[in-house]
Amino acid sequence: xxxxxxxxxxxxxxxxxxxxxxxxxxxxxxxxxxxxxxxxxxxxxxxxxxxxxxxxxxxxxxxxxxxxxxxxxxxxxxxxxxxxxxxxxxxxxxxxxxxxxxxxxxxxxxxxxxxxxxxxxxxxxxxxxxxxxxxxxxxxxxxxxxxxxxxxxxxxxxxxxxxxxxxxxxxxxxxxxxxxxxxxxxxxxxxxxxxxxxxxxxxxxxxxxxxxxxxxxxxxxxxxxxxxxxxxxxxxxxxxxxxxxxxxxxxxxxxxxxxxxxxxxxxxxxxx
Length: 272
Prior knowledge:
By secondary structure, this protein is α/β, with parallel strands linked by helices. It has helices at about 10-25, 35-45, 60-75, 100-120, 155-175, 200-215, 220-230, 255-270, and strands at about 5, 25-30, 50-55, 80-85, 130-135, 180-185, 240, 250. The two termini are about 30 Å apart.
């Protein structure tokens, strides 16, 4: 039985992945902001609920991530996989308590921060995995990191790629820094989930109108992250570009100097 932590596991793709892990006989630890959704998720697991737990946490801030890590490590000295399915979609100029834009703090930095804090538990497992979900962003995408990490006057159009591509750089870093660990990035596709809750009204209206025609199912979007967390037949670091197709994957091979720079910035921000 494996123990798999799913950040953002109380809804959407993360919840679907958690259901699949439980169906295959594993144990899940769910992290999410909304306590009510977390409790509803646990209740929906039926007899498998005794292999699941939930922590209500705030992953958009440094203190919230540290609190989440403390609570997880207090209950689990060993983790087999860490699935990052948390995400926010906002076009507004917002700031967290740490002065960072939430698109950056949630969609990348919290993943780096939480993983770094949980490395002691991951190192106790042979071939532990860290899997990060993003929107479609191939490793070859040219991205400008001049505005990283402050993103002053955040522009979704200009800053999205740098934030999402940082996940690929972190996967590349983990591959070199933690030889016993596998790291990968998965395109989550266009599933209709709670990530749309902070988007403009017209995007939500469009999603409601055309969603059945253009959106992937949550089951399809969850397929690759589930397989990446459980299967042994893939090398690190890897990217899965096509939802539902685990065999189609690309190696993550990025400029090492850029990776080092981004990891230095991440380390300075989080102190880990």
